[in-house]
Design goal:
The structure holds 2 protein chains of 2 kinds. Chain A is an alpha/beta fold. Chain A is built from 14 helices and 15 strands. Chain A has 2 domains: about 190 residues, 3-Layer(aba) Sandwich (Rossmann fold), CATH 3.40.50.2300; about 160 residues, Rossmann fold. In chain A, strand 2 and strand 3 form a beta hairpin. In chain B, helix 1 packs across helix 9, helix 5 packs antiparallel against helix 8 and helix 9 packs across helix 10. The chains are: A alpha/beta, B mainly alpha.
Chain lengths: ~400, ~300
């Protein structure tokens, strides 16, 4: 009996204390835990650019933060979306309904991200998209419940295509992956090339995924275009570049422009096949002291240097946790607002800030793949040529179709 | 310039040549499947994974043991084929008396295990396997630049196809094999070791897949997922040719390569579905396949 009484008394005390906490701090950490879901392609085409390595980056952020926020432990759940919008959306629905997950991170294939952010909007959750490319995620598909972190198709086109046209590459042949992401990239590239005085002389939309590119490379050779632009990603890009080198595309005077190339792609292809390739990236591990220091820690964990997506997952998770701490709650709306209040300047993002459409804008970089002679090690792959300032890199808000933006 | 169906003659000829090269690949892979199905009645869903294992064995053999391409072309099919024989002896044989579906499920499961294990160690980005020096460069055919290696693939694949066809259809060993699958008890009564023959045949089919894998290694990035996308196409080729028909698999493989190649010029969006359209048509008109005997 005395035990019962004591418990009762204690519960009343706790309840009183917590209601006081609510009145002072406005809200609290739900379930006494900050629960983060990591959703990504863990086994397919996009595994190496985010995948298990992205989860490691997220775990590093949690560990560096101390493992808890204001005394509430941080818990990570993870799942493989297998690049399927259905699987992704159902996983997130289950996370929200049954496990009260507070934030979903990772998010790679654009189709999965668009489906998941709709679920988050319906359930008032919070998502941070790090791996996806489609700029539509913060344009026509924007929601108040997600943020897009690392890059998107707009700066890819704006960086690479513009630089290539300025160097005299004014006639283009586009190899486009025949799905939402490829179409978005194709549209962005076409407008950038034409705006800078260039011309698209032809193109092929190839099925996703394609293993044999020889026929398309032959068509590109026949087109007479100076530049063969690759509006595809992952294994398709790797395959296209390999085939182009077998068919002597560059020897016959044409040049390749990779529009979405990750560090792991260049690493897989080797410098012999990729040297001189221009690309736009949100981050590179060997940019400066800070990025090197973090990357070396990451390398010790995984045995590979991080891609921009993996670094972005650390950066976004850290920014989220700081916002939860500062707000004293994991309530999505409050945290989202808090995240947008603070500028982002860490080893990953320079001059970073979150706009009302959910786009995290930050400096982007035009890079060129090193020659085998220039490279001093397995992961010494890029020269950073120039910085594209945050304000110029992304689609201006004045062109936005996002309903959250007052135009 | 001469035009064919609105496409310059040179482009048309180029695509025809490339289609033939890809077709030789399809022929080689579907041949292995046809041998295994035709003689053993096993629907080998691990064929794509075995092809991938061939490419990986070539890559790792070069990286860690210094085995060059030419040696790999001989050794890898033997090693992977031997591995296939172990699979047959210890796994497939146990379910040989059950419905074909069990074999399909078992081989599919094994394929997933092989792929998953390699993904765990090597990721999915793929690795490069250098083209052997004498096959580097290309041939100027007038209408196109054909990389020498692709020309070699065409020759090697066709030679292997002919060799296999000859072995099975024209030799005594092949005759035993065909008879053994027709009536194994009678053959055993004649003193032929039929179980051993079956193990060897499965090993041979797997060896063909591994041979194709070594041929593919310098062409495509060597990655654990390289076989899974190809497998479906190759199955369609086997169905079109007629399940189990050796000659059917070879001719259909070449034909489908050409049809796919031309689709890539006229309507590229459909290039990975065109083979399935042909499959539907063939199944409607000739349910046993173009070269199949039983209806």
């Amino acid at each position: 009996m005395t035990f019962m009484k004591k418990t009762l008394a204690a519960s009343i005390a706790v309840a009183a204390a917590s209601s006081m906490a609510i009145s002072t701090a406005h809200a609290e950490i739900s379930d006494g835990e900050v629960r983060i879901g990591y959703l990504a392609d863990m086994s397919g085409t996009y595994r190496d650019l985010a995948g298990p390595g992205g989860q490691t980056a997220m775990e590093m952020a949690v560990a560096d933060f101390g493992g808890s926020v204001n005394g509430s432990p941080i818990v990570i759940f993870s799942a493989d979306d297998r690049n399927s919008a259905d699987v992704g959306a159902n996983t997130v629905r289950e996370w929200i309904d049954q496990r009260n997950v507070d934030m979903v991170g990772g998010l790679v294939a654009s189709s999965v991200s668009i489906a998941v952010t709709k679920v988050l909007q319906e359930n008032n959750g919070l998502g941070i998209v790090s791996g996806s490319a489609a700029s539509s995620i913060t344009n026509e598909h924007c929601t108040p419940n997600h943020i897009h972190w690392v890059y998107d198709t707009y700066p890819l086109a704006n960086g690479t295509a513009k630089a290539v046209v300025e160097q005299g590459g004014d006639s283009w042949f586009l190899l486009t992956a025949d799905y939402a992401f490829g179409h978005a990239l194709e549209a962005d590239v076409t407008s950038v090339v034409e705006a800078n005085g260039g011309e698209i002389v032809g193109g092929v939309r190839h099925p996703f995924p394609t293993s044999d590119f020889s026929s398309y490379i032959l068509q590109a050779q026949g087109s007479g275009a100076k530049i063969v632009g690759l509006a595809n990603a992952g294994a398709d890009t790797v395959n296209a570049i390999t085939t182009a080198s077998q068919f002597g595309l560059t020897q016959s005077g044409q040049q390749l422009a990779g529009l979405l190339i990750f560090l792991n792609d260049v690493h897989a292809l080797g410098l012999e096949a990729t040297q001189g390739l221009l690309l736009t990236t949100g981050w590179y591990w060997d940019m400066d002291e800070e990025s090197r220091a973090w990357s070396e820690r990451y390398f010790e964990e995984t045995g590979r240097m991080p891609t921009m997506v993996q670094a972005g997952i650390y950066s976004s998770t850290m920014h989220y946790l700081k916002a939860v701490e500062a707000a004293g709650t994991d309530d999505p709306e409050t945290v989202r607002a808090k995240m947008a209040e603070e500028p982002i300047n860490d080893f990953f993002a320079r001059n970073g800030s979150i706009r009302e459409d959910g786009r995290m804008i930050h400096d982007m970089y035009l890079a060129q793949v090193k020659t085998p002679e220039e490279s001093t090690g397995e992961w010494d792959l890029y020269n950073i040529l120039s910085t594209i300032p945050a304000a110029e890199a992304y689609r201006p808000l004045s062109d936005s179709q996002c309903p959250l933006v007052q135009n | 310039m001469t035009m064919i169906f609105g496409v310059p003659m040179a482009v048309f000829m180029g695509q025809l040549t490339l289609g033939l090269v890809n077709g030789a690949f399809y022929a080689l892979l579907s041949l292995g499947l046809a041998v295994i199905f035709g003689l053993l009645k096993i629907v080998n869903f691990a064929h794509g994974a075995q092809y991938m294992l061939g490419a990986f064995a070539a890559l790792l053999g070069f990286r860690y043991l210094g085995i060059n391409y030419w040696l790999a072309l001989i050794l890898v099919p033997l090693v992977v084929g031997g591995f296939g024989m172990l699979m047959e002896r210890f796994l497939l044989r146990r379910i040989a008396h059950l419905d074909h579906l069990y074999g399909l499920l078992l081989t599919f499961g094994l394929a997933l295990i092989f792929e998953g294990t390699l993904i765990n160690f090597f990721g999915v980005s793929g690795a490069r396997y250098a083209t052997p020096e004498i096959l580097q460069g290309g041939l100027n055919l007038g209408f196109m630049f054909l990389p020498t290696y692709r020309a070699w693939v065409l020759v090697a694949a066709l030679a292997m196809c002919l060799f296999t066809w000859f072995m099975i259809e024209r030799t005594r060993l092949g005759a035993y094999l065909r008879a053994g699958t027709e009536n194994s008890q009678l053959m055993q009564a004649f003193g032929v070791n039929v179980p051993l023959l079956i193990t060897l045949t499965y090993g041979f089919g797997v060896g063909l897949a591994a041979f194709a894998g070594v041929l593919a290694a310098p062409l495509y990035p060597v990655s654990p997922t390289m076989g899974s996308s190809l497998l479906i196409v190759v199955f369609a080729v086997v169905v079109i040719g007629g399940m189990g028909s050796i000659l059917g698999a070879i001719l259909t493989g070449l034909g489908m390569g050409i049809i796919e190649g031309l689709t890539k010029v006229y309507y590229p969006e459909a290039s990975n579905t065109v083979i399935f359209l042909v499959m539907i048509l063939v199944l409607m008109l000739r349910p046993a396949g173009l070269f199949g005997k039983e209806a």
